[in-house]
Amino acid sequence: MKSDTGRLLITGGAGFIGSNFIRYMLKVHPEYRIINLDKLTYAGNLDNLKDIEGNPNYKFMKGDVCDSSLISNLVKKADVVVNFAAESHVDRSIESPDEFIKTNVLGTNNLLKCSLDAKVKRFVQISTDECYGSIENGSFKETDSLTPNSPYSASKAAGDLIALSYWKTYGFPVVITRSTNNFGSYQYPEKLIPLFITNILEGKKVPLYGDGLNVRDWLYVEDNCEAIDLVLHEGKEGEIYNIGAKNELPNVEVTKMVLDILGKDENFIEYVTDRPGHDKRYSVDISKIKELGWSPRHDFDEALKLTVNWYKDNKWWWEKLK
Ligand code: NAD
């Protein structure tokens, strides 16, 4: 379907993964025209896209995915919608869930409804492995039921189910990606890896939740961008694709690796009271996306070093955010 996908509406493209995805798409498909619609919440940052703001095939618009008249106009100019827009931080969802429900549920429905009316050719819903909830052993498959535990993951699961209902009810061509924890450049320094790197660079300790044994599968953001590009073009309508890297590590191990790269010891770790309802382990089965022809290219150690070096070299980007 490549010839039909030249006009992309990307929502939430001023955030971490969305901005990496826009940069990736303009490099790999230089003929594509991209509109980036973003509300510029605390997590949206036009500095993430400074290097491409002059690209004639790229346009930024400030706006909310919940705004029906704005969205119905924008989707008329799009072949494909890729929805990254979300409230994305679990701790914030525990403090105040309302914005999560508005953007992740109502905003997703608004985008779907307007895209259906405009006969958009493909709608890619960017979701998360957190929808499945925690798993002690083994890995979740796309067919497993959803048992999300935080307001964040519940709102993302709701968005996914609404998206799937548009496929089942209207035959609207939705595809969903559920990726594991991403890391890389331009990630807001509230998430574990960038928070810990930047704290250490500032000479501060790193706050590790509970016993530090919660397990996450770490995916380098560029690998995720490749996978999303593949699902956009080759994914089957109405299907869900898990995306992960099989880098399952307890948080304390990741923390020690970051400390090691920066030449610091474990005295920099400060164990803090655990997050309420903290999921113990996330794990997804990635055989379906592998069958589509994707595998992560980056080795975790190398990608972590690249990431640490990026934050070392780009203090201008994160110092003002902290
Ligand atoms: P992020 O918080 O860095 O970026 C979210 C972006 O959405 C921001 O630019 C923000 O301004 C924008 N936004 C928020 N509300 C909006 C609204 N109402 N209208 C328009 N724009 C709005 O998030 P991220 O880490 O880049 O995550 C992107 C997507 O990927 C999210 O849907 C998230 O659930 C999903 N995801 C993230 C991870 C991860 O590890 N970061 C893992 C799996 C899935």
Describe this structure in words.
With about 325 residues, this protein is of the alpha/beta class. The protein folds into two domains: about 210 residues, NAD(P)-binding Rossmann-like Domain (Rossmann fold), CATH 3.40.50; about 90 residues, Alpha-Beta Complex (UDP-galactose 4-epimerase, domain 1), CATH 3.90.25.10. The chain is about 40% helix and about 15% strand. The chain has eleven helices and 13 strands. The strands form four sheets. It has a seven-stranded parallel beta sheet with strand order 3-2-1-4-5-6-11, sandwiched between helices. Strands 7-10 form a two-stranded parallel sheet. The protein has a two-stranded parallel ribbon with strand order 8-13. Helix 5 links the parallel strand 5 and strand 6. The chain binds nicotinamide-adenine-dinucleotide. The site of nicotinamide-adenine-dinucleotide has 30 residues, from helix 1, helix 4 and strand 5.
Q: Largest beta sheet: what is the strand line-up?
A: 3-2-1-4-5-6-11
Per the principal axes of the C-alpha atoms, what is the gross shape?
A: globular
Through-space gap between termini: 43 Å
Radius of gyration: 19 Å
**Uncertain spans:** none
